[in-house]
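Reply to dn_fold:

You asked what the input looked like. This is it:
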Amino acid sequence: MASKKDLLKGELTSLFERLVQTGDPTALRAHILSKSNLPGPGANLELAQAFGDVAADHLLQDRSRVWALCVELHLIFPLHTLQSCQHVS
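and this is what came back:
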C-alpha cells in the first residue's frame, strides 16, 4: 500500500508536468492550497515533503517556472514554503 506522501507525489508529478508543458501554475497552486491545511496548526507535512521532492525532480525541465512557483507560494505561506523549497534553490 502506498504511503500518503507517495500518493501526493503522484498527484503533484502530474500537476508539475502540466506546469512545465503549459507554463500555467493555476492547477498546481490550487491543489497545494486546497490540501495544505494552512493557515492553521495542522499543516500537511507530507504535502510539503512531497512538493519539495517533486519540485527538485522537475528543476532540470524548467527551473525558472519551478522557482517562480516556489517564490509565489512563499508569499502565501512564508514559513512553511521555505522548508519545502530549500533544496530547490
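DSSP finds four helices and no strands in the chain.
Hope that clears it up.
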